[in-house]
Amino acid sequence: MVKLRSVFLQLLASVLALLIWSGPVWALEPEPELAPPQPEPELGPESAHFMPDTTSLMVSLTGSPLKMAGNESAGASSQLTDLPAALLATGGIDYQKDIRPWVSDEITFALTSLENGQPGYLLAVKTRNNRDADAFLERIWQQQATDGQTINFERYAGVDLISADVSPNVATPVRLPGLLKPVRYLTTAKLDDRFILIANQRQVIEQAVDSSKKKTPQLAKRSEYKTAIASLTQKQKSGMAYLDLEKLLPAISGQAATTPPTYRSLGIAFGESRQGLLAETALVAKAGRDLPAVKITQQEPMAALSYFPGNSPFVVSGSNLGTLWSQINQDLQGYPNLKSWVNQTLGTWGKTRGLNLTSKIFPWVDGDYAWALLPDSLSPVLSAQANAEADWLFAYEQTNSDKNKQLATHLNELATEQDLGTSPFELAGRKVYAWTRLVSQEIDDTRSSNLTFKTEVTGAYANIDNQKILASSPEALGLALDAGSDALTSQRSFQDAIAPFDQPNQGFLYIDWPVMKPILKKNLPVISKLESNAQTLLSKLRSVSVSSYGETPEVQHSQWYFRF
After folding, report:
1. pLDDT digit string, tens, across residues 298-327
2. What's the predicted TM-score (pTM) here?
3. What is d(CA 223, CA 555) in angstroms, rounded to the nearest whole number?
4. Which of 452, 418, 415, 449 is nearest to 434 (CA)?
């Protein structure tokens, strides 16, 4: 294969030759006219030029999802109109009846400000039929006048604005996320003869008019926005979103950031698939982020997954776990609460009576790996155990690297530190090993006092080809060895969950949502809030899977697949 450097040198030589030999000819020719400067290509939705640079959240739907929005059979992305529809309902506007009939191929909702306890909302709707759009404006303002509200008409920067305080909608109570407040003031405008703008504050709509005329800084010109949106591949056509994480996360949590956040913004492009929603994300880090990049190596799921039970509800697989774990811990430095939750939750899940995966094993693994959580409810074998901690399986590739050899030594050292011995035994026709210790137990007897000893098993493992499979208990290891045709990799639900991801990638996370939801709700209270605010979507959710497939020091690319 020709090296890039040699190609570059050949090209450079050709250009120099052209300059040298053509110079005299150029000198005889008149100086060509300068071409006019080309405008920058538009990034994101057309309505982005209405958004001021203070915007912390923008969600835009484009194309076919808008035709389905509100239908019972609608796709997942079309149901993202539920949030702006709920807000509009508090101001007396019925999205399905008043807006959906005339919307064209784009609708964008934005939080343009988060100040003074009242977020600024802006809805930009591209019109398909001007007559219907004009009829909508006339209808909603006639209704407000009928309700006794004073309607204000004014002209701002050449644009007609209509506004009024609105009557609370008490007939249809609406549940909103904690960050959002009901609409108590309404203002509208028509711009470019193609967009209807609806806002809850006069200042918001004036900023939108100014942004459209380039009188004030636009969101579309912010470097964080351009980096996030330009990094997306544009494969997903149903819509996109932009989140200013530095503004949005403190507003959601209600707490000011105590440490500099790792990431500045997030760009999302999403598209419909036959069974769900596929989202591509670009996470933009703060300037100066210098972390080791994780190699993109995986083409197919790790071979050891064929030993993981088919009903495993939480599975992580990839390569270079030591580097990835180090990166995760460093990235989470900017989010102390999240870091505490991750370390505590994963530490609990990956802990047995003698071995802690996250702190003792993860940092040493440099090859392929896979980890599965096995709740007791999935198996009568596990349910019969006295151990209250979750069972798990962890497999890693045994390579010839120095780090892998150190891991083998490290496992022996951990066993020695805890006075554990290694006992071989046969399980499912294979020779396997258990970490054990002898525990004394005194038996009270009326005639004498005797000591007895019992063997306590703290974990088990097996060597299969070049894989080592660790288990929290012999029972969990037995489930792995007996998986056979019922293994995870043979399950259609698992295959469908990871099928949409680009290859190669850095691995994946797979969550069986119905099984893991109650477990996650115990450890992560935000799940309950999310469930109450997105009940329509989450009630149909079957699995969530995530894959990372590339990064630079500034941008981390991932794909999320929500299967319904």
Report:
1. 567 778 899 999 999 999 998 888 888 888
2. 0.82
3. 13
4. 415
